[in-house]
Amino acid sequence: MTDSVLNVVLGLVASAISAALGWLAQALRRRRRVERMRAFLGLPAASECLVVVPRSVGTGSHAHTVTRRDAYALMWLAGLVEECGARAELVAHDAAHRGLGLKTELCLGGPVSNERVAAHLAWGLPGVLITSGPGPGSNVIVVGERDFRADQDQAHTLLARIATPEGGRPVFLIAGQTGVANQAGVRYLVSHHRELARRYGRDGTFALVLRVVNPAAYGPDMVELAADVTTEAQRRPAPASTAV
What we know:
By secondary structure, this protein is of the alpha/beta class. The protein has helices at about 5-40, 70-85, 115-125, 180-200, 215-220, 230-235; strands spanning about 50-55, 85-90, 105-110, 130, 140-145, 145-150, 155-160, 170-175, 205-215, 225-230. It is built from 6 helices and 10 strands; from the N terminus they run H-E-H-E-E-H-E-E-E-E-E-H-E-H-E-H.
């Protein structure tokens, strides 16, 4: 074998080894990324989770009707679960009669449209009050002394992770003031789960209020963090004093 042929063979071997190492490094990075996501979401491979579906609160809506926007949000949640290699069980908000911690819960919608969300707020985030109604200014997220109102220029979403007792699987709440806000909250979770895991840990509780900017024009695409309300959300309000 001449020197030129030998150089060509060695070059090909070196290229093959380099390509194999590059592929292996990418595979390892992807595996670590998926494992971190699984740990944060409480979704080990082949596990099961509950996706708790809200009802439509529109006039004349059937008890188990889901709005178009909420259907889109549920599709994003299902994609996130599938990326973890887990399985999602869709459960109506008034049919999820089970305890906490056995399975991860992904709950969509506010307490008016989702009874399960109402129960989780009362138990894990007692400092949060979410009201909803047909009139202007009636859709409000109140946390401590701060309130976040929906109007024609903005809507808000409460995005929260609640740790369950004894290291059980977590509960995630995506409670938007509108269907667009629900969808925006899910997309924020999908896009920022790594950042959230780094900031709050894999086992921590957090509560964030997200602002959806001009949803009539931009839909669920323009989302920003309005406030981290983790401390206030977990603080139980003082009982009202009784006049003597």
